[in-house]
Write a structure and sequence with these properties.
The protein is of the alpha/beta class. It contains 23 helices and 10 strands.
Length: 457
Amino acid sequence: MASKQDIFFAKSEVKTNDLEHKRKVAFNIQKYNDSVVKGKRQYANLELAREKAKNIKWKTIEHLDVYLEQFEKNFTANGGKVVWAENAQEALDAVLEICKSRKTKQVVKAKSMVTEEIGLNDFLGEHGIESVETDLGEYIQQLDGEPPYHIVTPAMHKSKEDVAKLFHEKLGTEPNLTPSEITTVTRHKLRQKYITAEVGITGGNFLLADVGGVCMTENEGNGRLSATFPGVHIAIVGIEKLIPSINDLQLFWPLLSTFGTGQQVTVYNSIFSGPRKAGETDGPKEMYVILLDNGRTNLLRKELRESMYCIRCGSCLNACPVYKNIGGHAYGATYSGPIGSVITPHLSGMKEYKHLSYASSLCGNCTEVCPVKINIHEMLLENRNIAVKEKHNGFKEQAVWTMWEQAMLSRTLLNMASPGIKNKVVNKMFKDSWVKHRTTLNFSDKTFNKMWKERNN
């Protein structure tokens, strides 16, 4: 069976040579970049806002246990129920138990990367429960049988012609629908689902400790419908999404919007603090929040703790030259791009996903564009260091680099080998990485060392 690394290399090679894929992604990312420039104009001092946001996340993660307990206390006081899930299976079992107790046959689901992380749709399908994606991009991907391509724009790699063709094949619509017609068809298909679904499932952009609230920001209104129409609302949220206070939203919501989509603020911004109360006409009768760890506490180690500040805006993906070339699916993980390469080895296993931290030019652009100033490229280096220390790179690679190190540290050893021998050794060693896609490496007949000696007698 092929390893995750082998699959990554195979998919990456296909995508880097797919010019049409590159064209679509470049077009969509350029639209994003243009919007972000406009969105940033709302700030009188953007750097100050980013610093404040980072400091708030630092404070939260340093006292994560305190804020988690505060959130549980306040949310429970509002009539909600909290479920602590140490891993994906515990979260899935909790959802299934809630659904089975109400004999649920159908759920509607708002856009949520954490539910992708735990494989919720497939799991519910195996137990006879239909899970319907209600976000347009996620709905497109569900129809196509693909996972999200990007953490903010799930169908970024598809053109409007691709989507029209997909709708024609899957839904029997006309083959050349316009984007507005595609939206109309989707709305017609989904509206009835909200009414008939017994359970609505969402994620959460932020958790508010002081009021026990789950925050959700979106542009389509489907999240609000998924949370309020069904009788039961389940929010599955990673423990790192906490912020201390509802007053912090005036900072975080605009930052997430600006760096995520280029908007000053997204269209729909909701806070859910529990089920419907006596005298209220809207909202679910029951509300659950599943607080998911699933490896997140592994990121609390000093060198990687900043990665838990991430607000999932996707800006580092759009800035990364590697992501632009290989796309989101090549990573083979829920969270792709630079931040995904940092956290995935700790969420899903360093041995299986260590290669992702090497899929970076270390240009630092990801760090430059992060709204909460996470030092992403330094943490990619730290992951490489951890992989080597824990001996996940294998004996062959370790031996090769040990020999390389010894040779590079010894002028005597370097001078012993002729340019011809160096050419053969290096080009054979890197034949599957460098030489396969470039010209061979050729060493000069005279080394710098030799020329220096000749110049200085």
